[in-house]
Amino acid sequence: MNKDKIDDRRVRKTKRALRDGLAELMIDKNLRSITVRELTDKVDIHRATFYAHYKDIYDLYEQMEDAVVVELNQILINNFSVPSIQFYTVLFEYISENKQLSRMLFGNHGGISFLYRLNLLFEEKCMEGWCKEWELSEEDEELKYKVRYHVQGCLAIISRWAESNFTYPNDKLIRILSDIDKSMEGYVKNKSTEAQNNK
Predict the structure, then answer these.
(1) Are 142 and 194 in contact (CB under 8 A)?
(2) Are the beta carbons of 18 and 43 closer than 8 angstroms?
(3) Number of H helices, E strands in the chain
(4) pTM of the complete model
(5) Under the phi-then-psi rule, with left for phi > 0, alpha for psi from -120 to 50, and beta for the rest, what region is 45?
(6) Domains of the chain
(7) Are residues 78 and 41 in contact, defined by beta-carbon separation less than 8 angstroms?
(8) Which residues contact 116 (CB under 8 A, 6 or more apart)?
(9) 62 and 77 in contact (C-beta within 8 Å)?
(10) What is the mean pLDDT, run by run of 10 residues, along the chain of 199 residues?
């Protein structure tokens, strides 16, 4: 086998071990309470190996967060226009396939930057999608307030699910979120009708 491929595989394995180890530690501890030594001891990797890939614990966390934001953005792009049950099914499948990571990021020991970034990402997509579909202005302040309330509520439900170690059945949560979406879509439709009538 090619030496570069072996080295690449080792690097991926090392990084995966460090990511999984940090996610596990953050179930019970805040990021600022975790040391590089604690993490490397946990996953049985030399500290020098850690520093070959990351500046510090925060650098590792930020890279993990960045990767998840990119992947969730792709899920939004690919699935935003599908029925809400289908969208949440795809989203929850991603979360279920990345449980440790999701518990770290959505749980109460994760950094606030992750949920803040997700709020902005989901709000932007909601505004863009609904305004385009229903011919509404993206400058509509009332709609912005409603969208923020809607998005933060949905993410709070997902956070609670992660904090409870995913014990609540995901099909029931998908149904809850889908029902919430229907209420929001009803509001957006009414807004669109009012806008059309006022022209």
Answers:
(1) no
(2) yes
(3) 9, 0
(4) 0.86
(5) beta
(6) 3-197 (1.10.357.10)
(7) no
(8) none
(9) no
(10) 66 94 92 96 97 96 95 94 93 94 84 89 91 85 92 94 93 94 85 77
